[in-house]
Specification:
The complex is a heterodimer. Chain A is of the alpha+beta class. Helices cover about 20% and strands about 15% of the residues of chain A. The chains are: A alpha+beta, B alpha+beta. At the A-B interface, helix 8 and helix 9 of A face helix 3, strand 2 and strand 3 of B.
Chain lengths: ~375, ~180
């Protein structure tokens, strides 16, 4: 029975998938715009999904045997397909309208502090609201705020940005031996927190940064160091005893500003070449910030439409330097060396070597 | 060849007469035009003493803005730098320490902010990109300089004077008071 492939039509594209596949996974198999966006569902985490409602789709035909449409929009990450099912995602106005409403709800308490947030540029909520959301807000009340929790030296928690997707809770549950944080309180007050400010000390806890779809959990060692789109992602690996050691370095010049796991086109951590999901350990993520620690494989391919590809002049052909040739090998005298004047990127202040955000004291040396 | 319009004039190639060749009449005609301009309105102004008002959409030297309490508005979000077609803007961000709340508006701020005026094309895209009302193009020119070094503008060149500490300078920078 499990060998049998079932037909499902999503946005008039038919695909054959094994029984038990969810609509979202089938849509991702087709790829492109057909795949509904997902904020809480994470294919590598068991039990995730069904919370954010951004992946709502319309089922216009239940199955071959029972062709009645489903009366309400369904969450595609939690609904398994039936044989002959017909699903409408971007072809349905109802879905687009519902998704716009969902985005509005997600943004109700979101502080929209993207200029300060380190996630900006690779934030799923930013992409989602840009594609599906309304330009303005109708919310007139104070946005909720929380007491600040300290999650240790490595991870920065901004509870106001959280959309309660539970991904980090599943990550801690499934990747680490002990889970020390969870969702406390209910409803409007629900928040990600650790009991009695207990630090998260597990080897793989850094992965909560990668799974977080918004800027609620960010890397404290990268905090405010640079914007994501000014750093260049490079694939690299090292021999690590605890994890696969395959990572992405976010570099600027020869400085490693940030280390993350490699992500696939859905923003999820990629499979590693050694098999299994390529989660990386805290040592690789937070403590190896030297180029010499890594074996660099080459630049990561970035989607051309992503802001991260700004300033990457792919296929650039530099004109030949003719000056030294005509001047008998002497290079021309520079009228100004920018580094002698510029105050930015001073060689004696290496921000990437700091394990905390830079402060005014670091610049006034 | 057929003329395209009837305004074409055939060139006269006959030799000038003696009266024409002394140019007397043409000189008198030219001088009359010159003298008539003495009584007309002057289109020029005496520049350093007199100045023309700038157009309200004039894009001149950049200014980094402060809020009403004199705190810097810039949070080093990098949107001006990413919008800049000339790649003239660079910055380094830092986290606000406790006790610096009166200096910076948000928890992140630009510790270093630099505009390379040699690169800048004064397009105003940085002003449009800024989400925090922090950068503005003012109605002044970048002053000339003998060296290239003088065109790398740091934060001390760009920041508007503090409205609390130096209200007179602030008013002058805003154009509210007479210079």
């Amino acid at each position: 029975m499990s060998e049998q492939l079932l037909k499902v039509t999503i946005d008039n594209i038919t695909v054959e998938v094994p029984a038990g596949t969810t609509i979202l996974q089938a849509a991702r198999k087709i790829g492109g715009d057909v795949a509904p966006p997902a904020m809480c569902y994470y294919s590598k985490l068991q039990g995730s999904g069904g919370k954010c409602r951004t992946c709502l789709v319309e089922v216009s035909k239940g199955s071959e045997k029972d062709p009645r449409p489903m009366p309400k929009l369904v969450a595609s990450c939690r609904t398994t397909i039936m044989d002959g099912m017909e699903v409408k995602n971007i072809t349905s106005d109802r879905v687009l309208d519902a998704r716009k409403g969902v985005v509005e709800f997600l943004l109700i308490n979101h502080p929209l502090d993207c200029p300060v947030c380190d996630q900006a540029g690779e934030c799923h909520l930013q992409d989602l609201s840009y594609e599906h959301g309304a330009a303005g807000t109708r919310y007139e009340f104070q946005r909720r705020t929380f007491k600040k929790h300290d999650l240790g030296d490595y991870i920065q928690l901004h509870m106001t940005r959280c959309i309660l997707c539970y991904r980090c809770v599943f990550t801690a549950d499934q990747l680490t031996k002990t889970r020390e944080h969870g969702v406390l309180d209910r409803g409007d007050h629900a928040e990600i927190a650790t009991f009695i400010e207990k630090n998260l000390q597990n080897d793989f806890i850094g992965n909560v940064i990668d799974v977080c779809p918004v800027g609620a959990l960010t890397d404290k060692t990268f905090r405010f160091k640079n914007r994501v789109w000014f750093t260049k992602p490079v694939d690299a690996h090292r021999d690590c005893d605890t994890c696969c050691g395959e990572v992405q370095l976010w570099m600027r010049g020869h400085e490693v500003f940030r280390v993350t796991a490699r992500k696939d086109e859905w923003g999820e951590v990629k499979e590693s070449t050694k098999g299994g999901t390529g989660w990386i350990c805290n040592t690789c993520r937070f403590e190896k910030k030297q180029v010499s620690d890594w074996e660099i494989e080459g630049p990561t391919k970035v989607n051309r439409h992503s802001v991260i590809s700004q300033g990457h002049y792919v296929g650039l052909q530099k004109p030949e330097e003719t000056m030294p040739k005509v001047m008998d090998g002497r290079s021309p005298k520079l009228l100004m060396d920018i580094h002698s004047v510029s105050e930015v990127n001073k060689p004696n202040i290496e921000l990437s070597k700091l394990d905390r955000p830079a402060h005014s004291t670091d610049f006034n040396q | 060849m057929q003329a395209l319009t009837n305004r074409a004039k055939p060139v006269e190639r006959r030799p000038m007469t003696w009266l024409e060749s002394i140019y007397l009449w043409n000189i008198i005609k030219g001088m009359a035009i010159t003298f008539s301009h003495i009584f007309k309105k002057k289109p020029t102004i005496n520049y350093p003493e007199q100045k023309r008002p700038f157009s309200p959409v004039f894009r001149g030297l950049h200014v980094l803005n402060r809020d009403e309490e004199g705190r810097e508005r810039c949070t080093a979000c990098g949107l001006c730098a990413v919008a800049c077609p000339a790649e003239a803007i660079t910055m380094e961000a830092a986290e606000r320490l406790p006790g610096e709340e009166n200096l910076y508006r948000e928890e992140k701020y630009a510790a270093k902010y630099e505009i390379n005026m040699l690169r800048c094309i004064f397009c105003g895209l940085c002003e449009e990109a800024c989400p925090k009302d922090a950068i503005y193009l003012s109605e002044t020119f970048a002053p000339s300089n003998y060296t290239r070094k003088g065109f790398i503008y740091g934060k001390d060149d760009l920041l508007i004077p503090d409205p609390k500490q130096a209200p007179a300078d602030f008013a002058k920078a805003k154009g509210l008071a007479e210079a």
